[in-house]
Amino acid sequence: MKRHYFVQMNNQQRMSPVGVSAVSSGAPSLEAIGSKGGGGTVNGGYDGTDDVDQSPPDYGIVNIYQRSNGDLSSLGGKSKNMYEGSHEKSESDKGGSGADEDSDIITEYIGHYGLWQFYWTFLLCLFQIPTTFHIFCLVFQAANRDFWCARPAHLRSIPLELWRNLTHPNGGQCSHVNAPYQQLSVQNFTDYFGSVNVSSLEQVSCNGFEFDSRIFGQTVITEFGLVCDRAQMMSIVEMCFLAGAAMGAVGSGWISDQFGRRHTLMCFALIQAVTGFLLGFVTSLELYMALRVIIGFASMSVAVVSFVLVVELVSGKYRTIIGILNILPVAISYVLAAAIAFFTRDWRLMQFVITTPGACLLLMWYWCPESPRWLLAKGRIDELKAIIDQAARVNGFKLPPGYEKTLQVPETETSGDVVSVFDLFRMKFLRTTLVMLVVWFGIVLIYFGITLHLSNLGGDIYLNTVLAGSVESIAICLSIVVVLKLGLRVNLFLYMVVAGLSCILMNFIPDGNLWVIISLAMIVKCSVGACNAIIPTFTAYQYPTTMRNLGVGAGNFAAGVALIIVPYLWLLEHVDQYLPITIMGVFSIIGGLALLALKDKLSKKYQQRHRSGSGSGASVGSSVTRSTDDDTRRIEKHFPRDNVENGLSNIGFAQNESIFL
Is-annotated flag, keyword S-adenosyl-L-methionine (predicted)? Predict the structure, then answer.
């Protein structure tokens, strides 16, 4: 049985904050009217009931007539969504974020951020840990080590320093003097080299190599002999992973849009785990390189898709906060990786250890929720309802009966032409796209250029890594506070310029001041680490909803190009020690300056101007947010209201809900 209540109001009558003014004047309440079924009036009368059947009521529509020139804000003050009255909002929703432009119909039922979102955003951010391990592991698995020509088996007891002084007179590492080693013994070895002019002997290439094992144990370089004429292969090995990561950064967005965030994430996590374990067993360099391409693709896909899923579980300002905090495990993983490498001292054992956490995370596959926003966009309402029911129950929200009828794809997401990558380069978005390409390229170039080559800076690699991870963790946490105060663009600009200037300053540090170089490197790592946490969120807000995936994908493409360049950029240190770091600093400053051409669409000033501009042509009192208007249209589609004549408007309410706006 569906009942329609009609309350006629004139210009002098107003609705009180707790009901209708007629109630206080002695007229029966709306509940009383409904209980009578056919009698009772309120200032204009009850127009009747439409008894359809005897089943329990589903929705009741209270049609409140008001003349079109009336001020909607006078009806009880602030406008609220029609579903707010039946449950208490969580504390996170009382701070003003409820009117955020990032709200939607799902937010109305589960809130911006609650216990359910906290639980899953925490678990999903853990996927960043094994991903970072695989990205960062070559810092230890392929660390530079001192090496020399191997001693013959029967001369291994000769002291190392004596061997290198006599057979490597020029300090070379790839050749030694040509002597009749098979005829020499430990007893006459010194006598032979004392009787000949070592400088006149021919230099020949080494048949094998020995490596310094005081700091590192078995590494990829020692396993496959990637030194001397094969040293350039190490750059190709590193490029294999980064090329796969570049493809994953670009392609994972499309894959997750087609097949869903949850299954895409878990499938790539499975590929990552299987490939990670296989890497620990390979014995050929070719197979190792092929597997590195696969694990690079899977690892970056896991990083991207887990980020998308995390931010789609929340809304409002919490998308910015959670989007930044999602990168915090990356910095923590650097510290953990240093500890694992320190205690394992073997690249195969380390490979098994860093792969195990990712394999353990696969246990949550069955329980992991799909993105409710993705389900809504795809029209999979039954699955969406199950997630909303669970989230609302955990967050303490009471859902109105039949609410699933309002879960429809917003018209703005289904109407219009299908967007393509070419839309990014149309005049409206051309400047934004070009700037974001430069910014992404600069951030990724300096971030991975520093992160993956900490050993090139000198000093203890383990200590450098722990310091770098620690300062980046602090920077990420502090950036949240600063971002909420100053906005994303200002932070990105400051961080990128500071990082760039610190890189350039390294050229002016006198030799022997290693601690100054390390300090500047930590400043760079701190600044660019915060940039790496902010840039995905900033990019997403530069484009409308229908183009956000394309915009972030274009940024990831520029990041992929930077990833491929990084290994070869450090080869320039053979020209000048600080040339690679200088190039990275220049690109960072260029990216920071380019940001001045964009607007921070999350800043309070921009949002105030945007709201005032968009509301200039609106009628007085139309203070309902965009999401509320969309939700109202969804309600009206299922429960249409009668046409109103004489310029009178009606306002719909769900049954058992508060009737004040």
Answer: no
